[in-house]
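BUG-656 | component: ligand-complex export | severity: low

The export step for (S)-3-Hydroxyhexanoyl-CoA jobs runs without errors, but we want the raw record kept on the ticket for reference. Input record follows.
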Amino acid sequence: MSTTLSVEGEIAVVTIDNPPVNATGRAVRQALADAVASTEHNPDIKAVVLQCAGSTFVAGADIREFGKPPLEPHLPDVLVQIENATKPWVAAVHGSALGGGLELAMACHYRIATPQARFGLPEVTLGLIPGAGGTIRLPRLVSAETALDMVAGGKPITAPKALEAGLIDEISGGQLAEDALAFAAKVMNGKTHVPTLDRSVNMPKDRGKFDLQASIIRKKARGHTAPSVAVTAVQNALSMPAADALAAERAAFIKLKSTPQSTALRHIFFAERATARIDRIKDVSPRDISHIGVVGGGTMGAGITAACLLAGLDVTLLERDNAAAELGQDRVLNILSGSLKRGLVSAENHLQMLAGFRTATEYVALKNAQVVIEAVFEDMAVKKEVFAQLDATVRPDAILATNTSYLDVNEIAAAVSEPGRVIGLHFFSPAHIMKLLEIVVPDQVADDVLATSVALAKRLRKIPVLAGVCDGFIGNRIMSAYRRECDYMLEDGAFPHEIDTAMRAFGFKMGIYQMQDLAGLEIAWAMRKRRAATRDPAERYVDIPDKLCEMGRFGRKTGCGWHNYNDGKEARAPEVKALIISEAKRKGITRKNFSADDIMRRILKCMQSEAQLILSEGIASSADDIDVVMVNAYGFPRWMGGPLHLLNADVGAATG
Ligand code: 3H9
């Protein structure tokens, strides 16, 4: 790392260069403190521009330092030194000003940014709140409502929004460095600059609405502690003198730093970034990809198509006839217009996506695609037929991917003349939203096919996790195992609402039975029927799910499944309770009561032992990868860090 100080006329330019993200590690903090001292003592300097080298402004404190004893100088003290400088400091922001980075920018007297810059306080995503004055300075620059959203929600805002909110003073029209110097020249001889902490705080415009916003944040956080602490910190900023609010913020930050939740969230942060570090392909260049083919325009195929279009790729979507192609097209267009309406894409981008999208009914239309992703019905014979057709029509070097969620990708690969180009790309529904992409690695896959798949995942802004070939890969295999365990618990004494309630209390958004009711029970039923002939007769088998389907209870869409739905409102189903009791009786099982703790202990134990098996068989490359899968696609509460983190950290339910 190097932090340099150069002089342009009467303006000092401090440049932080601390790759990869210019985090405020100890050396940076010291360099900033030195820069304040030297610019304050130099009578020739009238203003200071603070900028960063590399791809971003300061993206926060150095998270790797959080597990170690804090070293002086501390960031809050350095920021007070900057803020109290007699010469104006101008932060020139490109990339992201996050966490301690935004706190640093707010301690400067002015902020100028590129149009693409982003500003945020994502500390809650690490189980923390800002610890260097962020919760106190922010509501002195922006409205109390915006401050609450940013501190407790953790989502960054764009430069235009930051300008509108009052967080920054100017957006650079071209060259940030030059514009920052010009800005500094403009302010250096003007009126005295007011330290942000000395400004008056912006009180809520409507106290009732503000309090409601706060209570919604607390409720949504479920078992995650930090958002609620963040709300309190903003409330303190509004009601206490700045010095007291600062002391309270710092104390809360230090306390949160050592909680199991923060440890778990930091674990997941680094685990998500490690999944793509794959030894096998470290020296392999991915191919350039611009055109994707998708076979099948159902929910999955349409979601995959939209994900690719949103990432700027051209897509040809293949369906078996015009009617199906039209339905697929409608699904894709709906997703794209939803993104436009929510402001996630610009009108110009939306038009570009439409121009890059076409549907077709003949395989020949895929002849130029560099990657073809199959998302047809989950049946081996159907998949093999699709792959044989692809083998005969698409370019010989095209990567052929299957979106199967359970089937043997080696067997699918054997259906083409060059199995080395076949790989599994297991997306999760809705595919344009879910962050995880399981990359299923068959035996013969070529290295550059793997490297290109990993690069494609990143282009789609997804987290790639490699999985070996087995029934259900990583995530579905663990889910099948614990679903089975839950069904055993039904016979042994629990009821569906008790299991769902225990899971929600643990932090899942939904219980396993609510989730099945939402997704529909018929697909799993069809799969069980297909597998019935090969099932081990010695294996414990719970008939309740099959019997539910035989009763026409397919979930929410039929108004009943594991639960009843009256006008969409969930209610306990006496018919299901009776069925469970009679099935237990039929099998001679004496039912006993299960507490929420008993239920979660059994679910976790099952998840953990299946995860360990997956690890020992080499299906997953690391325990961290398994945690990333469970957190990003199966609703495992992020602040618990994943099933193996819980096991390894021996932290039990990370309730702190
Ligand atoms: C904080 O600031 C607390 C303060 O309020 C109080 C202080 C007293 N530290 O994500 P990428 C590494 S809490 C250390 O792949 P991108 C990351 O591990 C902090 N390392 O890049 C990776 O390493 P590797 C609040 C960090 O371009 C490499 O940088 N700030 C940090 O996709 C590249 O990362 C945040 O929570 C860090 N702070 O995205 C922001 N950040 O190559 C966290 C990153 O070895 N960071 N690394 O795997 C991010 O959101 C993204 O990294 C960012 C870039 C958007 C900046």
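Assignee comment: Attached the raw record above. Residues 2-258 form a domain with the 2-enoyl-CoA Hydratase; Chain A, domain 1 fold (CATH 3.90.226.10).
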